[in-house]
Amino acid sequence: MDDLIIREAIPEDIPEILRQRRAMYLDMGYEDSPALAGMLSTCRPYLSQALANGSFRAWQARLGEVIAGGGAVVISPWPSHPYDLECRRATILNVYVPPEFRRQGIARRLMQTMIAWCQQQKFAAVYLHASDDGRHLYESLGFLPSNEMKLKLR
To answer: Fewer CB atoms < 10 Å away: N or C end of the chain?
Structure first.
Protein backbone atom coordinates (compact mmCIF):
# COMPACT_ATOMS: atom_id res chain seq x y z
CA MET A 1 0.00 0.00 0.00
CA ASP A 2 2.61 2.54 -1.04
CA ASP A 3 -0.03 5.10 -2.00
CA LEU A 4 -1.69 5.02 1.44
CA ILE A 5 -1.39 8.33 3.28
CA ILE A 6 -2.24 8.65 6.95
CA ARG A 7 -2.83 12.18 8.14
CA GLU A 8 -4.11 13.76 11.30
CA ALA A 9 -7.74 14.84 11.16
CA ILE A 10 -8.81 18.48 11.19
CA PRO A 11 -12.16 20.00 12.25
CA GLU A 12 -13.45 19.77 8.67
CA ASP A 13 -13.14 15.97 8.98
CA ILE A 14 -15.76 15.73 11.74
CA PRO A 15 -18.54 14.55 9.38
CA GLU A 16 -16.30 11.70 8.20
CA ILE A 17 -15.27 10.80 11.76
CA LEU A 18 -18.97 10.59 12.65
CA ARG A 19 -19.77 8.54 9.53
CA GLN A 20 -17.03 6.05 10.38
CA ARG A 21 -18.13 5.89 14.02
CA ARG A 22 -21.67 5.01 12.92
CA ALA A 23 -20.38 2.42 10.42
CA MET A 24 -18.21 0.85 13.14
CA TYR A 25 -21.21 0.35 15.42
CA LEU A 26 -23.31 -1.04 12.56
CA ASP A 27 -20.51 -3.51 11.74
CA MET A 28 -20.52 -4.65 15.37
CA GLY A 29 -24.24 -5.42 15.08
CA TYR A 30 -25.66 -2.35 16.82
CA GLU A 31 -28.76 -1.44 14.81
CA ASP A 32 -30.80 0.86 17.08
CA SER A 33 -31.28 3.72 14.59
CA PRO A 34 -32.62 6.30 17.09
CA ALA A 35 -29.70 5.62 19.44
CA LEU A 36 -27.18 5.89 16.59
CA ALA A 37 -28.75 9.18 15.48
CA GLY A 38 -28.60 10.44 19.05
CA MET A 39 -24.95 9.44 19.28
CA LEU A 40 -24.14 11.43 16.15
CA SER A 41 -25.94 14.55 17.33
CA THR A 42 -24.33 14.54 20.79
CA CYS A 43 -20.90 13.52 19.50
CA ARG A 44 -20.61 16.37 16.96
CA PRO A 45 -20.22 19.19 19.55
CA TYR A 46 -17.91 16.98 21.64
CA LEU A 47 -15.64 16.42 18.63
CA SER A 48 -15.59 20.13 17.79
CA GLN A 49 -14.48 21.00 21.29
CA ALA A 50 -12.14 18.03 21.83
CA LEU A 51 -10.34 18.44 18.49
CA ALA A 52 -9.85 22.12 19.30
CA ASN A 53 -8.46 21.52 22.80
CA GLY A 54 -6.37 18.47 21.81
CA SER A 55 -8.13 15.90 24.00
CA PHE A 56 -9.29 14.00 20.88
CA ARG A 57 -6.75 13.29 18.15
CA ALA A 58 -7.86 11.45 15.03
CA TRP A 59 -6.14 10.09 11.94
CA GLN A 60 -7.46 9.18 8.52
CA ALA A 61 -6.04 6.69 6.05
CA ARG A 62 -6.45 7.90 2.49
CA LEU A 63 -5.92 6.31 -0.89
CA GLY A 64 -5.97 9.37 -3.10
CA GLU A 65 -9.23 11.14 -2.31
CA VAL A 66 -10.84 7.98 -0.90
CA ILE A 67 -10.96 7.55 2.87
CA ALA A 68 -9.90 3.98 3.62
CA GLY A 69 -10.10 4.08 7.41
CA GLY A 70 -9.59 6.03 10.56
CA GLY A 71 -8.90 5.91 14.25
CA ALA A 72 -8.55 8.19 17.25
CA VAL A 73 -6.87 8.71 20.59
CA VAL A 74 -8.69 10.28 23.53
CA ILE A 75 -6.48 11.93 26.12
CA SER A 76 -8.19 12.14 29.49
CA PRO A 77 -7.17 13.23 32.98
CA TRP A 78 -6.31 10.21 35.11
CA PRO A 79 -4.81 9.79 38.57
CA SER A 80 -1.14 8.88 38.56
CA HIS A 81 0.10 5.40 39.46
CA PRO A 82 3.41 4.28 40.99
CA TYR A 83 4.43 3.08 37.50
CA ASP A 84 3.06 6.15 35.65
CA LEU A 85 3.35 9.55 37.29
CA GLU A 86 1.60 11.36 34.44
CA CYS A 87 -1.94 12.38 35.35
CA ARG A 88 -3.39 11.49 31.97
CA ARG A 89 -4.41 8.45 29.99
CA ALA A 90 -4.44 7.65 26.25
CA THR A 91 -7.24 5.49 24.89
CA ILE A 92 -7.41 4.38 21.26
CA LEU A 93 -10.89 4.12 19.82
CA ASN A 94 -12.93 4.28 16.63
CA VAL A 95 -10.46 2.19 14.63
CA TYR A 96 -12.47 1.49 11.50
CA VAL A 97 -11.68 0.31 7.98
CA PRO A 98 -14.55 -0.17 5.49
CA PRO A 99 -15.03 -3.78 4.35
CA GLU A 100 -13.65 -3.15 0.85
CA PHE A 101 -10.30 -2.02 2.32
CA ARG A 102 -9.86 -4.68 4.99
CA ARG A 103 -7.01 -7.22 5.12
CA GLN A 104 -4.65 -4.80 3.38
CA GLY A 105 -2.76 -3.61 6.46
CA ILE A 106 -4.60 -0.29 6.79
CA ALA A 107 -5.77 -0.83 10.37
CA ARG A 108 -2.25 -1.92 11.32
CA ARG A 109 -0.76 1.25 9.80
CA LEU A 110 -3.33 3.39 11.60
CA MET A 111 -2.57 1.66 14.88
CA GLN A 112 1.18 2.01 14.39
CA THR A 113 0.72 5.72 13.69
CA MET A 114 -1.38 6.26 16.81
CA ILE A 115 0.95 4.19 18.99
CA ALA A 116 3.96 6.16 17.71
CA TRP A 117 2.15 9.41 18.50
CA CYS A 118 1.42 8.17 22.04
CA GLN A 119 5.09 7.23 22.46
CA GLN A 120 6.17 10.69 21.26
CA GLN A 121 3.81 12.21 23.82
CA LYS A 122 5.52 10.12 26.53
CA PHE A 123 2.48 8.09 27.58
CA ALA A 124 3.49 5.09 29.71
CA ALA A 125 0.69 2.95 28.23
CA VAL A 126 -2.18 3.15 25.79
CA TYR A 127 -5.55 1.48 26.31
CA LEU A 128 -8.35 0.28 24.06
CA HIS A 129 -11.46 -1.85 24.09
CA ALA A 130 -11.12 -4.57 21.47
CA SER A 131 -13.91 -5.78 19.23
CA ASP A 132 -13.79 -9.46 18.34
CA ASP A 133 -12.67 -8.52 14.82
CA GLY A 134 -9.83 -6.31 16.05
CA ARG A 135 -8.52 -8.43 18.91
CA HIS A 136 -5.98 -10.38 16.82
CA LEU A 137 -4.49 -7.18 15.38
CA TYR A 138 -4.18 -5.55 18.79
CA GLU A 139 -2.57 -8.63 20.32
CA SER A 140 -0.10 -8.79 17.42
CA LEU A 141 0.88 -5.19 18.26
CA GLY A 142 1.59 -6.13 21.87
CA PHE A 143 -1.68 -5.24 23.61
CA LEU A 144 -2.44 -7.45 26.58
CA PRO A 145 -5.75 -8.27 28.28
CA SER A 146 -6.31 -6.20 31.41
CA ASN A 147 -8.34 -6.52 34.56
CA GLU A 148 -10.73 -3.75 33.58
CA MET A 149 -14.40 -4.51 34.18
CA LYS A 150 -17.63 -2.66 33.47
CA LEU A 151 -20.98 -2.35 35.23
CA LYS A 152 -23.81 -1.03 33.06
CA LEU A 153 -25.91 1.51 34.94
CA ARG A 154 -28.49 2.01 32.20
So the answer is: C
